[in-house]
Write a structure and sequence with these properties.
With 267 residues, the chain is of the alpha/beta class. The protein is built from eight helices and ten strands.
Length: 267
């Protein structure tokens, strides 16, 4: 009888242990599902100007409107391939950069990849390669040849961007920081600044958006920066997810979709 009770007791312990194990496993799975649900992406971009329209609450790039329209539709194609349903919100560049560097589950584009930004975010791309020059008012040619020639002049830059940082490091004390390139170009046309630091890629559309005659703006030979642009992800994004984004982008590029989007949305 004692042996029987011992046998039943052992079975009871085993049964309770099994139930506890299943309960623990269920908790783990539920927690994982909760974490997955909480890890929804928030996606931001900047400097859209007139290159995008809001359709039923969704930002869409306008055909042949410029590089920002292209970046927006490139993200949309990438998100479709990844099964991501987060819509894009526009923020000033400095705000978007701060968010992606300090919060989790963030994607932000287009961001130039620089040494000082390494480790603060993860990179998908490159989605563009750009050279930034100093541009001047064509009616008032400066004759500058090298960057140092402009050091005591007023230069309009996009607040917090790669040109802002580069010129600040080189001792430019008269930088005028703005939230849009179009505003910088208007200031240049009005004679309120001496130069604007901006990329050649997409400039015609920026001038169009600012309603400035292209003949009023001239490119100097002075290069401010050469950089590749990327979609930036929060630094906490796991390796596997980062690789999933990069592989999806690589497929877009190799399939010819990237080139088709360029042709559809650039000037």
């Amino acid at each position: 009888m004692t042996k029987g009770r011992n046998s039943l007791g052992a079975q009871g312990v085993a049964l309770r242990a099994g139930r506890a194990w299943r309960a623990a496993l269920t908790c783990v799975l539920l927690a994982a599902c909760g974490m997955a649900g909480a890890a929804e992406w928030q996606v931001y971009t900047h400097s859209l100007g007139t290159e995008a329209n809001e359709v039923d609450g969704v930002l869409r790039g306008r055909a042949h409107a410029g590089k920002r329209a292209f970046y927006l539709e490139l993200y949309r194609a990438l998100a479709q391939a990844l099964g991501i349903h987060a819509e894009v919100r526009e923020v000033p560049f400095a705000r978007g950069l701060f968010i992606v560097q300090h919060e989790e589950g963030i994607a932000f584009f287009n961001v130039s990849r620089t040494e000082e930004r390494e480790g603060t975010m993860r990179w998908v791309g490159p989605i563009s390669d750009e050279t930034d020059y100093l541009y001047e008012n064509a009616r008032h040619p400066s004759g500058i040849k090298v960057l140092a020639d402009a050091q005591d002049k007023t230069v309009c830059v996009l607040n917090g961007n790669v040109n802002d940082k580069a010129l600040s490091r080189q001792g430019f004390a008269r930088l005028v920081r703005n939230i849009s390139y179009e505003s910088c170009l208007r200031m240049l046309a009005a004679g309120r600044v001496d130069f604007v630091a901006t990329a050649e890629f997409g400039l015609p559309q920026r001038l169009h958006n600012a309603r400035i005659d292209p003949a009023m703006v001239a490119r100097t030979p002075v290069v401010v920066n050469r950089a590749s642009g990327y979609i930036a992800l929060s630094s906490s994004v796991p390796d596997a997810e980062h690789q999933r984004w990069q592989q999806a982008f690589d497929k877009l590029r190799h399939s010819g979709r990237y080139q088709k989007l360029l042709e559809q949305y650039l000037d």
